[in-house]
Amino acid sequence: MAHFSDYLRKPEYLFRPSQVGRRVLRALRSTPATATVSLPWGTPITIRPGEVIGRAIWTTGVYDLAVTEALWRLIDRDETVVDADANIGYMTSLMARRAGPRGTVLAFEPHPDVFRDLEENAAQWRESAGLGQIRLVRAALGRHSGTQTLDEGPDFLSNRGTARLAAPEKDTVSAGVGRRFDVDVVTLDEAVTGARPAVLKIDVEGHELAVLEGATRLLEARTSRDIIFEDHDTMTCPTGAQLRRYGYSVFRLAKGLTRPVLSSSGSDIGARDFAAPSFLATLDPVRALSRVRPRGWRSLAPRSGPARGR
Questions:
Q1: Best CA proximity match to 233, nearest among 274, 276, 284
Q2: In sequence order, which residues have a C-beta less than 8 Å from that of residue 260 and are 6 or more positions away?
Q3: What is the mean pLDDT of the chain?
Q4: Which fold has domain 64-300?
Q5: How buried is 72 (Cβ within 10 angstroms: 0-12 exposed, 13-18 middle, 19+ buried)?
Q6: Do 194 and 223 form a contact (C-beta atoms < 8 A)?
Q7: How many Cβ atoms are within 10 Å of 119's Cβ, its own excluded?
Q8: Reported pTM
């Protein structure tokens, strides 16, 4: 077990000290295959503590705090937002809480087994007051609509967020390593017809650019103010370059001790930031910077009631 002083260097414990007690108690017991826990914003979620996402929630109470907090600060009440890929719905639940009862979350998840867990979690949220409407779509987002092969890959059993669409021109998975099967693919332009999503969260294991290439109408209309995406490349990654062509300012997003950190160069991101590289693309950098600047982790100690903008 980690030394108590280690907890003081983690905002997940420093700003939510009750989580320290939960972690200690859970460490004294055998780890269950599944468990239902309450997220900081009061939403229940069923997790698998043996997997990467479930283990993070089981031990720290949250997953990917920098992205969690950025979404918490950027989403306003009554907005429509998109979660791709949604996995078991952790970010979906946060987005629904922030958008409030008149907001809408479009959550996309292509893997049938993971989608089943997402559905079961969403069923629990129907009893939670103050959440936005959640529309679940069992499909991946991509460049073109149709079907495409989904690769589970060798790490799927420990991290079900690693399943990814196979590149059509080559086989990226060795024989016998993980399952492969066809899934539905839709474009974001087609999926959001009639909607004006203000915030997009895109974490699709290397296919972020393909998702954006299927959203040209949306990007040209400039209706999506903020886009949070994962990319393992540098600040000059193709995804960021594509968004800059549409007028977005792109920042590296990371976790500091007292708040999220936005950097236009990535040079001031601390070496202790081990999370997957995430970025914020925004059409309103003044607003985004002002929202992120105040110290504190509001997602760890939220006030009651839906989002009111700040």
A1: 276
A2: 66, 69, 70, 73, 253, 254, 292
A3: 88
A4: Rossmann fold (3.40.50)
A5: buried
A6: no
A7: 14
A8: 0.90
